[in-house]
Every structure is written in C-alpha cells, then in structure tokens.
Design a protein that fits this description.
The chain has about 180 residues and is α+β, with helices and mostly antiparallel strands. It is built from six helices and seven strands, in the order αβαβββααβαβαβ. The longest helix is centred in the middle third of the chain and has 12 residues. About 25% of the residues are buried.
C-alpha cells in the first residue's frame, strides 16, 4: 500500500526541503536511506565531525574517518565536506573519499588505529554493539580559508547539521566547490 499526493502539496514541499531529493517525471521521489544501498553518482556528503578530529583531518594527520554506517558503494573521489561540530559549528574544509571499507570492528582497529587518531576506549564505545563498521579513507584534504558558520549555512542553504552524514544539496555543493581552499601537506 502506498500514499500519493501532488508534488506541489505543502507536505511534499516540506519533505523536498528537508532532504536532497530528486523528483522523477512521474512525481515520485526516493528518500535517502543509510546502509549499503547504491550511492548515486555525482553526490557529495557532509560529515559531522568533532572539532578534535576535524583539526587532525585538516592538518593531514588523521587520514581515516570511522563510521557506524555509511554507503559502502560511495564512488572513489566523492567529496566529503567537513562540518566541525560544537563549539566550532562550521563547514571547515573538504576531502575526497579514496575508499570506503566495511570491515569487522577488530580489523578496523588493527588496520587503522594510528590513522584514525582515536583512543581505544573511545573506539570501543563508538562501535559498541556492532560487528561491522566503516572506514572512510581520505585524500586531497583541503581546509577552507574562511569556514562557513552554521548561521550562514542555515540562512543561505536551509542547512541543518547531520547526526552522522547527509547528502549535500546541489546549491550547497555549487557554493562550496568554488570556495577558495588551502591544500594540506
């Protein structure tokens, strides 16, 4: 059983504003879903990362970001915009995702302990209850010379920070791709 309503209905407009949804010719849309589903080409993501870790990514030391969930089919070269959480609350840079690996938790620790810049206790707490996790391998990390604060992101792009990640809306992607940035060493 399904539900339908016109694409111009208020509910449809609110849903389309909340997500980066592409409507087809048949007025149907697909909501973004987490997991191993296909990652559509030409999609960039915004990752919420604590300031301690985002600084390590931008200075070139942390080359792997760990996630409980992420689309393993994200194509090589996908852009990850780095949203540094409170107290920074800004998009501070970007990186290309070189690979996404879905691995047993013990293997993630064994392979990426030094590249993920996380203490073992924090790692265990983060992955508690899971058998598998995700490692996002970064390359071509760039720090924005002028981070974009949350207030501006909300005003210009109707942006709300994700808990983990979200697909970047087209207008945000367009604005950020032209942002002058500095490549880390």
């Amino acid at each position: 059983m399904g539900a339908s309503f016109p694409a111009e209905a208020p509910l449809a407009l609110h849903i389309c504003d909340a997500f980066d949804i592409e409507c087809g010719n048949d007025d149907q849309f697909v909501l973004p879903i987490l997991g191993d589903d296909a990652f559509r080409p030409q999609r960039d993501v915004v990752l919420s990362i604590r300031p301690h870790y985002s600084e390590r990514i931008l200075d070139g030391h942390k080359t792997v970001e760990l996630r409980r969930r992420f689309p393993v089919s994200a194509p090589q070269g996908t852009i990850a915009y780095i949203y540094s959480t409170s107290p920074v609350r800004a998009i501070v840079g970007m990186a290309q995702i070189d690979d996404v690996l879905k691995l047993p938790i013990d293997k993630i620790w064994a392979d990426f302990e030094t590249k993920a810049f996380i203490e073992r206790a924090d790692f265990d707490k983060y992955f508690d209850g899971l058998g598998m996790g995700f490692a996002l391998l970064f390359k071509n990390v760039r720090s924005f010379e002028n981070p974009i604060p949350l207030e501006e992101l909300r005003e210009r792009f109707n942006f709300e920070p994700p808990q983990s990640f979200l697909y970047a809306k087209q207008n945000l992607r367009k604005a950020l791709e032209n942002e002058y940035s500095v490549v880390s060493d």
